[in-house]
Amino acid sequence: MKITRYFCFPNHHTFLMPPVAKIFAKYYTGGEWADPFCGYNSPAKHTNDLNPNIPADSHIDALEYLEGIVGNSLDGVLYDRPYSSAQANQMYDSIGADKAHNNTWLTSIRTEIARIIKPGGRCITFFWNTQGIGKKLGFEIEHIYIINHGDFRNDTLVTVERKVQTTLEGDLF
Question: What confidence score (pLDDT) does residue 83 get?
């Protein structure tokens, strides 16, 4: 596993930050990528956002969106959900704030992401920690990027994981 640190001023439009564009370009080799929380400027081919004012392919709950994707069909997923209820309230017109800390819902999101990514595919997670999708769901961390925003702002942590396992106990996939 590698760790790389960048500096960049914060932008709630994640994909407009130069280090994020550079990270995505490194791992995107074409193919089918989805973004269940796309916001503006997502480079994914398949996009969803609960906010009906966002230009996206669909505007449904992220879990419902992921459940509608055929298993092992995607080369990657961009997982950039609101980091907290406060952030959802402030930056996203309170849309989805009720689910920002719903552990059952978040676990289901991660399970669905694991189900839909092809073996060898990647998930790029943006958050304040490096949990990502996780080893228990068949993923291995390849690279962690720290994007420092200066002053007293939280860093953005970008976790790049590769799906290395396609079946687990209980045959989840």
Answer: 72
- Which pLDDT tens digit goes with each residue over 113-165? 999 999 999 999 999 999 999 999 999 999 999 999 999 999 999 999 999 98
Instruction: Judge contact between 46 and 76, C-beta under 8 A.
Output: no
Please state the domain extents for the chain: 16-143
End-to-end CA distance of the chain: 26
CATH (residue range 16-143): 3.40.50.150
| Strand pairing class (139-148; 156-163) | antiparallel
51-57: Cβ within 8 A, 24+ apart: 51/92, 51/93, 51/95
